[in-house]
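Model: You mentioned two targets. I'll fold them one after the other.
Researcher: Yes, keep them separate.
Model: Target one:
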Amino acid sequence: MRIPENLKESKAPAAVRLVAILDFIAEKGSASFSEISTQLVIPKSSTHHLLEVLCATQMLRLRVDGRYALGLHLFELGGLAASGLDIRLEAIPYLHELVELTGLTCHQGIMEGDEAFFLSKIQSPQAIILTSWEGKRIRLHSTSLGKILLAWRQTEQVEQILAKATFVKKTETTITDRQRFIEHLALVKRQGWAYDDGENINEIRCISAPVFDTKGDVLCAIGLTGMVSQFTNGKKEEYLSHLLATTEKISNAVNFGLKSRPMNKQ
């Protein structure tokens, strides 16, 4: 990894090099003095001073094997950043925009431990009254939100969660076989979205997609819900297009501060 071209002429070269060293070690797990100096193309004298600062501030630590690894202060800062992220507040304006674009009800779901819950619900004025509310538990095996929240997790973790799950048959299309459901999750991950084909309620359809953090982990799932009649005549594909564009906007806003001017509603 080298210092990005667009930062090579920065007026704060030491700051650029500090960030480059942290990124380099984060990617490799650990690195020697020689690796840092050579691969980042930083003079040895500068490398020495920069590492001295990073270790003194506990951004890095020097292991007994002579290699540098991330320090405790970075993990403390990471925890503060995570605790300061209100994914509901970040997403709400985009969910309102999505409801206006599609005329469908929009949900946001999150995982807490081994369970999933509705974090937000924006109901369309055109919608029927749905049996969902903020804080309600989400069925993992029969909803598109639940599928999204599981699909990007490690296989071992998914198996542990599903080992405790009850595969209740809600409709004729509900997947009740654990292994078949795990295979279905692989499909969800490959295509990047999930569909509830009347698996929870016969007359209802729901399509969902993930919001990612910078590591590629799923922060939350966003879903569009409506009657089966609303998903015919090419409408499903149209909703999917709007949904994927919205989840990308939310991911960018959360991770990089790239706002795209959603409607200002709270």
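Model: Target two:
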Amino acid sequence: MKLFDLSGKTALVTGAASGLGQGIAIGLAEAGAHVVNVSLGSSADTVSKVEGLGRKSTEIIADLSNHDQLQSIFDEALQLTGQIDILVNNAGIIRRAPAKDHPEKDWFDVINLNLNTVFLLSQIAGHHMIERGSGKIINICSMLSYQGGINVPGYTASKHGVAGLTKAFANEWASLGLQINAIAPGYMSTDNTAQIRADENRKNSITDRIPAERWGTPEDLKGPAVFLASPAADYLNGHILCVDGGWMAR
């Protein structure tokens, strides 16, 4: 089990106030990691749950779409912890509208947070990790890193982009001791899918296509995140791990 032990490691998880980010943060803490949560609003609930496991936890409330703040956010995390061993780029938004009517603002807002912020924050963390000769970056992709989706052109484009960034960073940084990988969740019961799940016909049609016959939960990402953050994944790089109940296999 030492292969999966994160004791003494510190993870910075974006969008950790709830949903998938909270599940990942708690999973990393269960494996021994301390956690810095970066979210637009308070992540007090996540802090409480992580501390309840005997780990250190703190929150930084910040707007990650404001790129002028990213360096100061990372510097604050370093001041609080001394080092960042793991970066989880989870924060993201989705805007739904048909492609022919998709508002320009929605397009730019989604690309800005889901893709531009991932690139810039990874670049900032990369400088720190390269100096130390080690580090793990875990990006959150999507089934829409592979598929086109419906009414979400900006989200689809951003998640295709995150998949590409994962491979690009891995190509350059694998030889420097870093591992950059991604998780592609399937259909998850979170706030982002509330609109879909409210439509019984759409929800049922999706469930019928999932071999596991259920939607995923934040808890389903704990194991994959711990694996990618741990020494067990030291020779895994540029990989996108589908956690989808078998969706991509059907």
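Researcher: Noted. Anything on target two?
Model: Strands lie at 10-14, 34-39, 57-61, 86-89, 135-140, 178-185, 240-243.
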